[in-house]
Amino acid sequence: MIAATMMARRIVEGKLSNTAQNLASAEKIRNNPKFRELVSKRTRFAWTLSAIVLVMYFGFIALIAFNKALLATPLGVGINTTVGFPLGVGVILTAVILTGIYVYRANGEFDELNRQIIEESR
Amino acid sequence: MTALAGALAAFGTLLATGTAALAAGADLGQAAQQATNWHAIVMFVIFVAGTLGITYWAAKRTKTAADFYAAGGGITGFQNGLAIAGDYMSAASFLGISALVYGSGYDGLIFSVGWLVGWPIILFLIAERLRNLGKYTFADVATYRLSRTPVRSFAATGALVVVIFYLIGQMVGAGQLIKLLFGMEYIYAVIIVGALMMIYVTFGGMVATTWVQIIKAALLLSGATVIAFGVMFQFNFSFEQLFARAIEVHPKHQAIMSPGTLVSNPIDAVSLGMAQMFGTAGLPHILMRFFTVPDAREARKSVFYATGFIGYFYILTFIIGFGAICLVATNPAYLDIVKGGLNLRGGNNMAAIHLSHAIGGDLFLGFISAVAFATILAVVSGLTLAGASAISHDLYASVFMHGKTTEGKEVTVSRYASLGLGVIAVLLGIVFEKQNVAFIVALTFSVAASANFPVLVLSMFWSGLTTRGAVIGGAIGLVSSVVLVVLSKTVWVQSFGYAEPIFPFAYPAIFSMPAAFFFTWLFSVLDNSPRAAKERAAFEAQSIRSETGLGAEGAAAH
């Protein structure tokens, strides 16, 4: 019983000191210019890619709503495939590729910067 | 509008009923019971035995709340990517999209694109912040700096509304599909689905759910790959030859190569696009999957893998749809002689199923039927777990007990909640058997886009968000999306029998989602309470954690 209480207390204290340490770290991170750099770079990158996806997708929807004839145009004389197919499949493939690009940069460059920030905050 | 409603049905969850509407106009007749399909039953029994074995193994590993809700955070990015794909690719998208392509060609691709483009947005804006700030549910993120009781109550309501509506669609779809594929009574089909999902979730928690989803994703992807390969093989791997034959045999001929009547009205086109894109980013069972990985890095990877698998799958369903035009519509054995035209035996949602028979005979047909059943099980398990977490983690532990409970009790409540949701799902499945549930998908994605998504995104990105703004704005999004769907043609005319719809469009998101954002903003900036000032001030600390992962929930030690 006593052992259990002591253990519980140790866990609580451990958590508290952990939080206190986090607070101190947070203060250092706030003042680290690298943190500003990380946030502004990653935010700009994320919103740029989001804007590309939004424009691409709602552009596709706008074509469906306002210019079906364009999508119905065959790719060439005697060809059955219409413009709409490469466009639609292109949106899917571009979406997959953009997620790949984001993960590549975020898990490489940005995570390295993040690691340095955490390191310097200790 | 009828075509839109039909398309919706085809997509959503409703299987036999929906596509019949698409193909035959207003016929919402029930799927006819088929002869008992022994190959399918044997393969399905193997799947069930395997997954129950996994559940037994998972149950022994599920001890803490972190195990139950988040598989201890020990799932890798790749595994989670597959599980997300398994959670997201429903039988409706497999059978529904291929049926839509079979019936109208290009229109199917429009829906596929819409269901995919939410994923990059989830990655760029949501996944890593969600992982860094949350623990088990997306409400954790919204309450990071906002007041616990009101915001959790709202978030849990949003989650439960989405989960329950989604479950109705899945259960009705499951019952109709199984009646078709296995020759089993509707009511037994619904009970079997409900019972199995209760067992997976209650005993195996997130570990079992994850593995059921991974296995299902692998089965579905490989099954669809084989069908698509079989189709392309017959056309010398030339899309030109495939399209040429499809144009020749399809009654709509050249029209299948471009957008048809499916999305005719610009408002509905944009509204549907918004619901699909942002609704995906507000689905509680999808968001929950990001807590199963150890850190933000793996969370990002999982979206990349998931997007790749889902995109690949949609391209396959497209080939399958065209393959069905060429290989199924030309074979009288698969056609419904009474209805004539392109109508298939058992309804047009059978396009992919008949195609599997055309390609691989009875054995392969059995395999694909079993995969379709497994697909439903994986989706309903994910939904049930998400709903149970909203009840136990958000409502019970935070709202009712004010955080004064133990992990063990919380998990017990969650298990009972899973059982309760299972029973509710079965009952709703029975009640809605003969209803046209075509509106369910519009409702689910619109609510997710209008209630959950705005609050989640603003809590992550906007320092000015306050409790009052989030609750009022989110509630307006929730209520307006539900009310507009009820007033639209799919419910007001087709279910209630009124002559004219009050809301003239099929999808509410173009109105309800901006309304949610606007009122959340308005009530936040008008909030001058001391609590609001504190909440705004707490944003900086939140952003340090959300950007760097400092202090984020780690993986549990195993």
Automatic annotation (TrEMBL), chain A:
Pfam families: DUF485. GO terms for cellular component: plasma membrane. InterPro entries: DUF485 (IPR007436), Inner_membrane_assoc (IPR052959). Keywords: Membrane, Transmembrane, Transmembrane helix. The chain crosses the membrane at residues 45-65, 85-104. This is Uncharacterized membrane protein, DUF485 family. It comes from Magnetospirillum fulvum (Rhodospirillum fulvum).
TrEMBL record, chain B:
Its main location: membrane. Residues 1-23 form the signal peptide. Keywords: Cell inner membrane, Cell membrane, Ion transport, Membrane, Signal, Sodium, Sodium transport, Symport, Transmembrane, Transmembrane helix, Transport. It is found in: Cell inner membrane. Pfam families: SSF. It is a multi-pass membrane protein. The chain crosses the membrane at residues 39-59, 80-102, 108-127, 154-174, 186-207, 214-235, 269-291, 303-330, 364-392, 413-432, 438-458, 470-493, 505-526. It comes from the Bacteria. GO terms for cellular component: plasma membrane. One of its GO terms (biological process) is plasma membrane acetate transport. One of its GO terms (molecular function) is acetate transmembrane transporter activity. Belongs to the sodium:solute symporter (SSF) (TC 2.A.21) family. This is Cation/acetate symporter ActP.
